[in-house]
Specification:
This protein is α/β, with parallel strands linked by helices and 334 residues long. Helices cover 41% and strands 12% of the residues. The structure holds iron/sulfur cluster.
Amino acid sequence: MLFGDSPAPGLVGIARLAAESEVLEAKRAVQYFEIGCKSLLNRTRPGMPFEWSLNPYRGCEFGCRYCYARYTHEFMELHRSSEFEEHIYAKSNVGAILRRELRRIDGSRGIAVGTATDPYQPAERRFRRTRAALEVLAEYSGNAVSITTKSDLVTRDIDVLAALAKHNAVSVNVTITTLDVSLARLLEPRAPRPELRLKAVRKLSESGIPVGVFPNPIMPLITDQEQRLDRLARAARDHGASYFGGGLLFLMPCSRRVFFPFLEKHFPHLLRRYTERYEASPYLRGAYRDVIRDRIAAIRDRYGLASSPPHRELTHCPEIQPCLFETEYRSRAS
Ligand code: SF4
């Protein structure tokens, strides 16, 4: 049974149903803003697996306890950690800005959508900035586009992804830290449940979109157990994922301010060990990192999963007239 390893295994009947219920609406004061931007594509540091990142939103409602992107709100002088979850900024003029930038860059070394905030967070349902960006990307050829999300909302855009995949390499990375519903609710309070994410993996795979599952971030003594990771990889394979990754938790000071109180409340026995490990550096190094790397590699081998999306030779197609291509898939989608 995939979802049966709840930390409160004694729950039955209505109590279990309640624990597993999807949040319809939480009474929080989320405010949405429109924010201007000069550019959408940011060049990444050398050594990253992609050269460009693209984030249509600032802030993220999913509110993961370990989120490393909270510091991005500090650039806007928003320092309370709750503001990252409650003040959501949708970037304006996405289509025109991206079109201008795509004419100037080589996207064949990777454009990663959703590196700092989830591109399919609840705001996307209404404001559709991610979809607008994908529509523009689909006008071009020869780019390698990857999307990372925790949300099954990504399946809404399968039509655009299919159009994009015609002349570009496309892949979707679905993040699933755990199959344990109760644990996921604690760690990622407002993100879709793990089985919804798995269903999204299946839909994407059945639509021919290369899709992988990432159990990121792997959290020591919380989600790093061989058995948990094994079940997750097997479920990923069974739902059509072709690759499986794995990266360890890193804790910048802005993340520690949220994660350590979270540990104190829900995993008090782990607080001292985490504090000792992460006080010196935001990153875990040494033997533990090697153990997890080898564990993930062995699990991948067991289920025939790759470590990354299938390679696709990219060619720029000068005959693609952006506007014509746009018209083609729009008419098909309507
Ligand atoms: S989904 Fe990603 S960006 Fe959003 S809160 Fe979680 S870790 Fe942060």
